[in-house]
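Reproducibility note. Readers wishing to regenerate the assembly model reported in the main text can use the exact inputs given here. Chain order matters: entities are listed in the order in which they were concatenated for prediction.
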Amino acid sequence: MRNTTNAELESQRDARGNGQGSPAGKILLAGLTGLTIALFLNSAALLADAKRQPDGPGRSVALAVWSPIESVASSLGLTWPRAAVERLLGRYEPEQGITLFLEQSQVVPTSEKDERVVPSVEDEQEPRDLPVQGLPQSLEPIWSSEHPFKLWIAGDSMVQFFGDTFASLAETSALVQATSEPVLASGLSRPDYFDWPTRLAEIMTKHDPDAVVVTFGGNDAQNIRAADGRWLDRFDDPWLDEYRRRIGTIMDLVVSDKDRILLWVGQPPMRQEGFDQRMQLLNNLYRAEALQRDRVHYVDLRELFTDSTGKYARYLPDNVGKLVDVRLTDGVHLSHWGGEWLSALLLRELRKSPNLDELWIQ
Amino acid sequence: MLLLWAIGSNWLAGNKIDNCRRLGARDGVRAWANVAIASDLALLGVFKYYDFFAVELSNLLGLGNAIPIFQLTLPVGISFFTFQAMSYVIDLRRGVIQPMRLLDFAVYLSFFPQLVAGPIVRASEMAPQIAKRPDPRHVASAEAFHLILRGLFKKVVISSWLASNIVDGVFADPQGHSSLDVLFGVYGYAIQIYADFSGYTDIAIGVALLLGFRFPINFDRPYSALSLREFWRRWHITLSSWLRDYLYIPLGGNRGQTADMYRNLLITMLLGGLWHGSTWNFVAWGAIHGVALIIERSLPIERIHPALRWALTFHVVCFAWIFFRASSFSAASDVLTAITGSSGDTKILNAGLILVLLSAIGVQFVTKSTSARMDYWMSRRPILIQGIAFGVGLVVIDTLGPDGIAPFIYFQF
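Running the prediction on these inputs yields the following structure tokens for the assembly.
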């Protein structure tokens, strides 16, 4: 353990800085010149970032600033070097128009027929047990190590904190193959950032999982853009209609073409009151859409992650009464233990199907 | 508010200590220093450690929810500014420094480049620079730009790449990876945390340099160390020297019986681990280093071949990192089990990853004079060229880095 003394500091200053340095004013000008050059060279990426921002004054200002700069830089060929490096790295994606959700003609959510009313928690019926799946009821095992039961776990950053744990837990059966796919900062509000319907359609086609677990919502309480290009204000009626349609689209994508199980994991209680209220509102939408579909089961986390007074708690007693921290310090995500608790709950939900239960009995 | 409290209480206590010293009132000096230190430790205790000890006590005594748990948000930078404040009152008590003016002290404690995650700059290092006022005619721009770019490269490119390509996946699901994958995941974390934390301090030192202040270095190629003692002279230097001067030596340091020295060493390392966070994992991390340091001191390690000494040191450090990174004891145990478990097919190991890890370790052996020569060479270039190089460097780093950069690891401490 060594302390750097003032004498050493002085000696370093003389040795490194040539004892001279430059005047602060010139450095400021040189720094600003460098930043201006960086700004033009990087303008395409900055504009892309601005487009990904949530709708609001900040996004409008960012677009107003970066759009003309990107136009100038592009016309001068200054965006080319970055694009070339990205091509070399295999990351280059030429800009496409904002991809909104799959057209209605491709996937027709069953909720389309239903009245678009958001029921309150009180109006909801109790969440049902997982319905008997449309899977074969035979006692003969239909999965094998060559043809495993495929489980896919997808969603936003919340999946990072339970996806792998749940996959490991599920794979304690040799007949199960599980994949966890978190995409940070993603959700259903901004398909221009990450298009989950397209990705899920791809997963269903390419991998054909037998059960899917999804969770969204943490990043979704923001304005969304409708198919006609209008921005819909958060939680206004048109927003609720559109968001509910998107939920339905996801659900139908997963369960419409096959006897597949979908577990839709609701948002846990959040430490910050306003955020918690917004998440509970979204949970009501998920629950309402799930209730309209067979094979879609809404998994409520409220009870699992609240204390005896029904409030958010970072520390909760486990089954032997020992307090464990189930949430991270951010008051949003799940800790290691929280991930284990949720994984155990999800496995219990899956095992409610008679055929699936056998997978983990062996 | 906490920062204001820390500024006000420590500055007032500092003035009282100085008055008592002038009057020759030793008891007064000691009392005011103790009051200030108790206040600083209380801040840390309430915001950082209370819940941890409340939960542990509750579980130990089977009290359930009887002990209230505050669930307070950890204030940004609290571990750093409280340690700086304590260094101020202790140095005043020792008569090493003179009291600072209120505004100077407020600048010292809240100086933004190092407020969030260090380095822990002592009052004895910062006070003369603030009092003297930086000379705006002579700013070490080349060195500053170099440090900022180097720090950003370490964080945005190296740390983020390792986190997303190997470390996060391995630590999230060690059982799902081959033993070789997990082993390289641990190596990857060793490089990641170095790149992350030293990257932050490079940026902090560079920004401070642009403002005319020179911070002490915080990292000196730690993975080139041939012993743990050397490692701690090279890793998080401002914390290790703080612990040495304000904890280890007051405990007795190397004085007394060998057993006393070992006890002092172990206590220092345990508390050093706890400083990082209120979990048993950090305590275990400190304990591993403490025990390993004791073993190292009791053996004639200088007789071992340097290459073997390097390998031993590096692997002890990596072993301790497992507990530092894992979210719980059982998660750390899973990682260790996976390393010694089945070989299996590698999912993530490839030539690119090995090259990155070898390069990152290799640069640890590049001498400091190489870096100094680069600074010197750049400092001879016209200032406009320096600015342009800085701008182009920023774009290169942003292009090479992945989308979405995780916060600095040490922000949580």
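We highlight two features of this model. The first strand of chain A starts at residue 149 and ends at 155. The beta strands of chain A are 149-155, 176-182, 211-215, 224-225, 231-232, 261-265, 296-299, 315-317, 323-325.
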